[in-house]
């Protein structure tokens, strides 16, 4: 033992001496000039780092690079410095043609530098610099899967060819790593340098890597890295231009908005310096930054160009740069912009709407003092005040379907077509201010489901042929216009760029729309989570405009996590802030995202006051059991709070995801029946235009009032997992002494227009001035029914119930997998006997196996729920062989019971099915039960 | 100088005697974390875990200790390595999940790591540090642990000559090309302390912990090759594997399901060579 410990101690000693990460050099007093000449004292210290290797996947013969690379790295409290020497045996073959920032350096010989200041491989920076001084850089997050910023810091480069190769010298300020906050900053960084030699495609790397230069976890480490000063922990997040006037030929006036985040140590006064080819002159402005988010608005800016142009932003203190970056500025000038109030939506009068008056506001972004307007030969003139001109004209006498309006302000003119749409025989939908959906002339509150037919079992479908047979549903179908579905590969090829779609895409959109003409459906579905794949809002706007031109009767919907960015390319913003519940092994329930995210998502959209946009919500009505063994379903209370919080924040409809799975738990199945019955019963008042103002003393409590035909409805929601109390005040309350609790047996007193409430976690209070819930089941009844159904689900006597973690499932090959193995495990033993758990599309054989990893069930009966069970055999595994025990079979339409007459046990069970002759009649499995 | 060195050696000797990581407790074990307490140090060292955001939870009555917490955690510590002791073994009894992105990984510098992203699962993880031949053969090397929004509840974390349950994957392709592809054969052998009634193997993509099909099957059936039924084996020639054309080294995991074999958890390992359809 003593010998072993002495040996260990010696090993530890050895480690103390030799195992440190690579320390960086300290710059010497003579400073470092960035000139690709390494004569400074700093570069005379220490040894060169060398020992580059070929990338593993390109090196099957254990060869070494043909050309050596060596480098030194130094750092002080403000900068990193690199001296890089790329030795080359054929210097005449060095390509050094590309110059300048954000170029395409890979056409030349390059080195690639990778830094992870947080010391973790989750996020890192890449700088690519060419022999000619060209550069490109990127910040990668989520292990290189996303690029959350158009990363462009400012840093200094000098490169030079010489007789033995080429040299590169860099100075990278610490504030160039602006995507990493100081709290994550470490003294030890992941670092790597790689080199690509263009002459022979030789890729070498300092750290040993296999397939890619992005294998950050395998990088070497640098120690002694300085921590950026807290006073420089500033993130210049973005900049945007608003152009509202034309100043002289080719120049525009407007404003700049800049968002900056600062930590408390960085709060204070700065000189903001802005430079760009787009700006008429350099802008210098004193700004005050507070801790947290800062939104700066710089008025009276002159732009000399339009388009997408980089803006250089610098914050200086005492003449010294504290933060710098470039940001791509989009500058678009529209001398004349129109917003119509009548018609308010899609520039169309819909059947039944008063089409006798056209009105709106023109933004006149030039020096004109009057807005001239012409309709059917009749001329009108309106004054321009502060750049705005309100216009209103009677067009009742103009008997035409298309009203062509010519607007003119000074030299700028615009023609707009207002359409009077004829009535159709099929469904017509439009949006009326303030964001209300209209179906064939009648306001509706949209109640729908995502995927109403997807994976619905035959058994469930027999009970409820459609969702509307289960609870009130009114949303008709959607027509899919997702670019990636219309033309495979088009998203990556064109939709991620700020360009007009190809003619082929327009043709496909047109073809799809024409094929649906005359059909009853509600919406066009333009994109699903476009932000996740970087689909351009500009690209989608082109398609949106094209769709509206071809078919204005059906609103265009986008389902997105980031709906604000896509509001101009859809009529319906339908976000899906899923909560992703999980249950830990200790029983603790965790939400990946809080329920209150609903209000954080919808409230900013509602605040834009876009009466021509409809807000909806796609709440989670499923379990992520598709990919997680820990996944759970949202509860009734979480779902109820999400839905009513959405209503408080402007939602006018729901399409929960996804219909088949909501039926897998009584709390959701019965819960959605209850909620949808409530919403249906209240739809008239919920879609009314009257929302009397109210205020809540607690900002965590949502409150909204609705009024129609003398009825007042108040909705109060606590979307948080902890209790909240609030005092809600409203002028409209003063008419009443108390309010009735909807679908509950209670009244709440009002005092001087105020109501005081204590709201438990996720509580929803729907209050009405009259009793309006006669004949409807109560909330107490719902809770009793949920408890009863949950109890029944858990007490079926199935030895496998709830043991999804202890059972492995296997199945025959299916050409399409509807439900993953984890989802099968979640649903096959959950006490729900009519929801699909396995729905194969078989090829040559059809079988299903269970393997019990932690227990050995002893059973005398088996019950299998599903479809196509005729001829199914049940086998157990004994000593490696499958045996079929004798059984008395009892067959029903959706179940098969096998009574073995004796106690059996086995580590595995196998079901073999008869292959269906008609592929339309597939086998389905809903539940497998083993009974004592 | 000699005097100072001797003092330092003595200090390290005392440290080794008292440290919560136990070194060479038996012939089969190079070191083992017992989880009884977690001394921390500011710098990366051999005598203690590093003081970072990572939380440590001392062993409970069942000897289950934890590492991790809510947020992004990393820890690095130097350990002795030896080619004689190639197996890193950890047993995850359970995993506590917190909000946000979830992942864990462990690796010795120079070698591939083992870990899972998004949906980690319990089990015994065995990882041959020398499978790719990049880790140094002896001396000290640092073990890096990254944990994102998880608490790993472990009953074992140790480096061994031979674990009780482990598996090996061999292929000529690994030797020749340091990668594998369709057409290559894999020889997979599972070694167990106790005989089992059945042994199966699944291929799992560690990114999302998704099941992969191999040659259209969702599992491989192994057969015993010894009289005691303690060594099970299968050989498979790959025709199709998973749905991607490429998998990184360490991305393809093997989940061994052992029925009635003295272990009630799956035994996990990772193939430490990349897979590519068109290499």
Task: Describe the protein in words.
The complex is a heterodimer of chains A (932) and B (279). Chain A has 932 residues and is mainly beta. In chain A, helix 8 (636-648) packs parallel to helix 10 and helix 10 runs antiparallel to helix 11. In chain A, the strands form 15 sheets. In chain A, strands 1, 2, 5, 6, 7, 10, 11 and 12 form an 8-stranded mixed sheet that branches. In chain A, strands 21-27-26-23-24 form a 5-stranded mixed sheet, with no helix packed on it. A 5-stranded parallel sheet of chain A has the order 32-33-34-35-38. The N and C termini of chain B lie far apart (55 Å). Chain B is built from 2 helices and 22 strands. With 279 residues, chain B is mainly beta. The interface between A and B is large, with 65 and 74 residues.
Largest sheet of chain B: 14 strands, mixed
Give me the count of strands of chain A.
58
Q: Which range best describes the helical content of chain A: under 10%, 10-25%, 25-40%, 40-55%, 55-70% or over 70%?
A: 10-25%
Main pleated-sheet profile of chain A:
8 strands, mixed
- Measured by DSSP, the beta-strand proportion of chain A falls in 35-45%
| Multimeric organization | heterodimer
Mean pLDDT of chain A: 92
Count every helix of chain A, treating DSSP H or I runs of 4 or more residues as helices. Answer: 12
Tell how many strands the DSSP assignment of chain B holds. 22
Q: Helix tally of chain B?
A: 2
Q: What is the CA–CA distance across the termini of chain A? A: 55 Å
Low-confidence stretches of chain A: 10-20
Strand content of chain B: over 45%
Distance between the termini of chain B: 55 Å
Secondary structure category of chain A: mainly beta
Report the C-alpha radius of gyration of chain A, rounded: 34 Å
Structural class of chain B: mainly beta
Helix % of chain B is under 10%
Write the layout of secondary structure elements.
The complex is a heterodimer of chains A (932) and B (279).
Chain A: H1 2-18, E1 22-23, E2 53-54, E3 69-75, E4 79-87, E5 110-116, E6 124-130, E7 135-140, E8 156-162, E9 165-173, E10 189-197, E11 202-205, E12 220-223, E13 234-248, E14 251-262, E15 268-276, E16 283-289, E17 292-303, E18 307-317, E19 320-331, E20 336-342, E21 348-349, E22 357-364, E23 370-375, E24 378-383, E25 388-394, E26 402-409, E27 412-420, E28 429-432, E29 436-439, E30 442-444, E31 446-447, H2 458-463, E32 478-480, H3 483-486, H4 490-495, H5 503-516, E33 523-528, H6 537-550, E34 556-559, E35 572-573, E36 581-583, E37 589-591, H7 597-607, E38 614-615, H8 636-648, E39 653-654, H9 659-662, H10 666-686, E40 695-696, E41 702-708, E42 711-717, E43 724-729, E44 738-741, E45 747-749, E46 754-759, E47 764-768, H11 779-794, E48 807-811, E49 814-817, H12 821-828, E50 840-842, E51 847-852, E52 858-867, E53 873-878, E54 881-883, E55 888-892, E56 895-905, E57 908-912, E58 924-931
Helix pairs in contact in A: 5-6, 8-10, 10-11
Chain B: H1 2-18, E1 21-26, E2 29-33, E3 40-41, E4 49-50, E5 55-57, E6 65-82, E7 87-97, E8 103-108, E9 114-117, E10 123-128, E11 138-160, E12 166-170, H2 172-177, E13 185-191, E14 198-205, E15 210-212, E16 220-221, E17 223-224, E18 231-237, E19 246-247, E20 252-259, E21 267-270, E22 275-276
Parallel strand pairs in B: 3-4, 10-21
Antiparallel strand pairs in B: 1-2, 2-11, 5-6, 6-11, 7-10, 7-11, 8-9, 8-11, 12-13, 13-18, 14-15, 14-16, 14-20, 17-18, 19-22, 20-21
């Amino acid at each position: 033992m003593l010998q072993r410990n002495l040996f260990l101690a010696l090993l530890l000693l050895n480690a103390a001496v030799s195992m440190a990460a690579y320390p960086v050099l300290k710059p010497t007093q003579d400073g470092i000039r960035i000139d690709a000449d390494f004569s400074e004292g700093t570069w005379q210290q220490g040894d060169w780092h060398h020992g580059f290797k070929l990338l593993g996947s390109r090196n099957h013969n254990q060869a070494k690079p043909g050309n050596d690379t060596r480098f030194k790295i130094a750092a002080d409290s403000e900068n990193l410095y690199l001296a890089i020497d790329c030795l080359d045996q054929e210097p005449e073959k060095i390509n050094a043609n590309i110059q300048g920032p954000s170029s395409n350096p890979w056409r030349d010989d390059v080195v690639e530098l990778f830094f992870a200041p947080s010391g973790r491989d989750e996020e890192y920076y890449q700088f690519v610099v060419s022999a000619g001084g060209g550069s490109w850089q990127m910040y990668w997050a989520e292990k290189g899967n996303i690029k959350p910023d158009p990363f462009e810091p400012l840093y200094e480069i000098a490169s030079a060819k010489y007789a033995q190769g080429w040299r590169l010298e860099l100075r990278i300020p610490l504030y160039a790593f602006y995507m990493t906050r100081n709290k994550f900053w470490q003294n030890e960084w992941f670092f790597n340098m790689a080199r690509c030699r263009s002459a022979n495609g030789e890729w070498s790397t300092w750290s040993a890597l296999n397939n890619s230069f992005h294998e950050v976890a395998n990088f070497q480490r640098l120690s002694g890295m300085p921590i950026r000063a807290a006073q420089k922990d500033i993130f210049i997040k973005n900049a945007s231009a608003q152009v509202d006037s034309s100043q002289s030929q080719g120049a525009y006036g407007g404003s700049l908005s800049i968002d900056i985040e600062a930590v408390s140590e960085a709060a204070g006064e700065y000189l903001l310096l802005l430079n760009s080819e787009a700006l008429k002159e350099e802008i210098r402005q004193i700004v005050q930054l507070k801790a947290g988010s800062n939104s700066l608005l710089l008025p009276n800016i002159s732009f000399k160009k339009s388009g997408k142009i980089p803006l250089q932003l610098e914050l200086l203190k005492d003449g010294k740069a504290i933060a710098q970056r470039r940001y791509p500025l989009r500058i678009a000038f529209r001398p004349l912009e129109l917003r119509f109030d009548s018609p308010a939506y899609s520039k169309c009068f819909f059947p039944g709407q008063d089409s006798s008056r056209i009105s709106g506001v023109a933004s006149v972004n030039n020096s004109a003092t009057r807005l001239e307007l012409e309709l059917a030969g009749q001329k009108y003139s309106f004054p321009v005040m502060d750049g705005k001109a309100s216009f209103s004209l009677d067009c009742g006498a103009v008997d035409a379907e298309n009203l062509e309006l010519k607007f003119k302000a000074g030299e700028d003119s615009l023609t707009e077509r207002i359409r009077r749409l004829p009535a159709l025989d099929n469904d017509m939908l439009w949006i009326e201010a303030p964001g209300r959906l209209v179906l064939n002339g009648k306001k509706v509150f949209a109640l729908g489901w995502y995927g109403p037919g997807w994976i619905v079992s035959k058994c469930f479908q027999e009970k409820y042929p459609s969702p509307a047979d289960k609870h009130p549903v009114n949303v008709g179908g959607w027509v899919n216009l997702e670019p990636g579905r219309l033309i495979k590969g088009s998203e990556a090829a064109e939709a991620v760029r700020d360009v007009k779609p190809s003619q082929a895409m327009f043709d496909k959109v047109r073809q799809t729309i024409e094929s649906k003409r005359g059909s009853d459906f509600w919406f066009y579905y333009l994109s699903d989570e476009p932000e996740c794949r970087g689909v351009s809002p500009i690209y989608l706007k082109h398609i949106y405009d094209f769709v509206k031109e071809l078919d204005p009767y059906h609103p265009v919907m986008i389902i997105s996590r980031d709906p604000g960015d896509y509001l101009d390319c859809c009529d319906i913003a339908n976000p899906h802030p899923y909560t992703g519940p999980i249950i830990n092994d200790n029983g603790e329930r965790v939400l990946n995202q809080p329920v209150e995210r609903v209000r954080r998502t919808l409230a900013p959209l509602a605040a834009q006051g876009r009466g021509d946009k409809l807000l909806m919500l796609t709440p989670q009505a499923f379990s992520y059991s598709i990919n997680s063994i820990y996944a759970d379903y949202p509860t009734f209370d979480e779902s109820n709070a999400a839905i009513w919080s959405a209503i408080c924040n402007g939602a006018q409809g729901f399409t929960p995801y996804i219909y088949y799975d909501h039926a897998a738990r009584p709390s959701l199945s019965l819960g959605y029946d209850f909620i949808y019955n409530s919403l249906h019963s209240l739809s008239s008042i919920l879609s009314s235009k009257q929302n009397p103002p109210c205020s809540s003393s607690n900002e965590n409590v949502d409150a909204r009032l609705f009024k129609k035909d003398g009825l007042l409805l108040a909705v109060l929601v606590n979307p948080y997992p902890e209790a909240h109390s609030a005092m809600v005040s409203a002028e409209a309350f003063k008419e009443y002494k108390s309010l009735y609790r909807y679908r509950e047996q209670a009244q709440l007193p009002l005092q001087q227009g105020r109501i005081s409430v204590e709201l438990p976690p996720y509580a929803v209070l729907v209050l009405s001035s009259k009793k309006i819930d006669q004949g409807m089941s109560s909330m107490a009844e719902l809770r009793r029914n949920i408890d009863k159904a949950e109890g029944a689900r858990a007490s079926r006597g199935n030895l496998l119930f709830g043991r999804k973690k202890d059972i492995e499932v296997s199945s025959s090959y299916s050409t399409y997998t509807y439900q993953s193995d984890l989802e099968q495990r979640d649903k096959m033993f959950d006490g729900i006997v009519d929801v699909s758990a396995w729905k194969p599309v078989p090829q040559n054989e059809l079988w299903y196996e269970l393997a019990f990893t932690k227990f050995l069930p002893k059973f005398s009966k088996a019950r299998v729920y599903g479809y196509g069970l005729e001829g199914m055999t049940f086998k157990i595994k004994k000593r490696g062989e499958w045996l079929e025990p004798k059984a008395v079979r009892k067959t029903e339409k959706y179940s098969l019971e096998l009574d073995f007459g004796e106690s059996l046990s086995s580590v595995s069970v196998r079901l073999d099915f008869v292959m269906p002759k008609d592929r339309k009649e597939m086998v389905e499995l809903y539940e497998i039960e083993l009974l004592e | 100088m000699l005097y100072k060195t001797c003092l330092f050696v003595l200090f390290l000797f005392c440290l080794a005697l008292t440290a919560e990581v136990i070194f060479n407790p038996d012939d089969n074990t190079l070191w083992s974390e017992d989880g009884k307490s977690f001394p921390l140090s500011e710098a990366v060292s051999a005598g203690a875990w590093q003081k970072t955001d990572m939380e440590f939870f001392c062993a409970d009555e069942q000897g289950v200790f934890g590492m991790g917490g809510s947020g992004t955690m990393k820890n690095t510590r130097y350990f002795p390595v030896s080619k004689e002791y190639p197996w890193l073994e950890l047993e995850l009894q359970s995993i506590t999940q917190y909000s946000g992105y979830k992942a864990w990984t462990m690796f010795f510098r120079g070698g591939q790591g083992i870990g899972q992203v998004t949906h980690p699962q319990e089990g015994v993880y065995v990882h041959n540090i020398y499978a790719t031949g990049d880790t140094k053969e002896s001396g000290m090397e640092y073990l890096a642990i990254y944990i994102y929004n998880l608490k790993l509840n472990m009953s074992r974390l140790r480096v061994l000559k031979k674990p009780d349950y482990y598996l090996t994957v061999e292929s000529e392709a690994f030797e020749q090309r340091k990668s594998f592809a369709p057409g290559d054969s894999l020889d997979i052998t599972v070694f167990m302390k106790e005989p089992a009634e059945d042994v199966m193997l699944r291929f799992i993509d560690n990114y999302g912990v998704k099941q992969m099909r191999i040659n259209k099957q969702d599992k491989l059936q192994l057969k015993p090759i010894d009289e005691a039924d303690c060594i099970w084996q299968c050989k498979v020639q790959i025709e199709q594997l998973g749905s991607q054309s490429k998998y990184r080294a360490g991305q393809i995991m093997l989940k061994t399901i052992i029925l009635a074999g003295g272990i009630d958890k799956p035994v996990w390992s990772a193939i430490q060579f990349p897979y590519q359809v068109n290499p």
